[in-house]
Design a protein that fits this description.
This protein has one helix at 19-31, and strands at residues 47-51, 55-61, 70-75, 78-87, 102-111, 121-125, 128-134. With 148 residues, it is mainly beta. Strands 1-2-7-6 form a 4-stranded antiparallel β-sheet, with no helix packed on it. The protein is rod-shaped and about 95 Å long. The N and C termini lie far apart (74 Å).
């Protein structure tokens, strides 16, 4: 174990200090994840699920996402949330040498076994998507049997 060398670093011996070590230190600093930033390109969206007596309430954090970029489907009790976000800047008056575009796609799937596919409500407000999924009415099929 003592002989293992971390990726992109050299041994820290006194005889082995040079320009390459300084370069590796700069690479580690600029490619690290500090400060921690969350984006659709590098992370999935977070969800909270509440189970009430009559419905499920799902809240998903979608900062910077428009409602046109969100697709919600419910199929056989499985709620699928998918987000597709594409950022393209068009400016034809400038002569570009280098131009970048971003495209991010992610989805989450939640099993809501007793969900009713009628009456689902969804609202996107201030970066939070709130979905209300009603539950199917529970029919008590158990019979009480009296012993003689």
């Amino acid at each position: 174990m003592a002989g293992l060398i971390p990726f992109n670093r050299k041994r820290n011996d006194l005889m082995n200090i040079g320009f390459d070590d300084f370069s590796n230190m700069l690479d580690d600093f600029f490619t690290g994840s500090w400060p921690v930033q969350r984006s659709l390109a590098a992370d999935t969206f977070k969800i909270d699920i509440q189970d009430n007596d009559t419905e499920y309430i799902i809240e998903a954090e979608l900062p910077g996402v428009k409602k046109e970029d969100v697709e919600i489907t419910l199929n056989e009790g499985r709620l699928n949330l998918s987000v597709k976000k594409e950022e393209v800047s068009e400016d034809k008056s400038k002569k570009f040498i280098h131009r970048e575009r971003r495209y991010a796609q992610m989805s989450r799937s939640i099993l809501l076994a007793d969900s009713n596919d009628e009456g689902i409500q969804a609202k996107l407000e201030e970066g939070v998507l709130t979905i209300k999924v009603p539950k199917k009415e529970q029919v008590d099929t158990s019979k009480r049997i009296m012993i003689e």
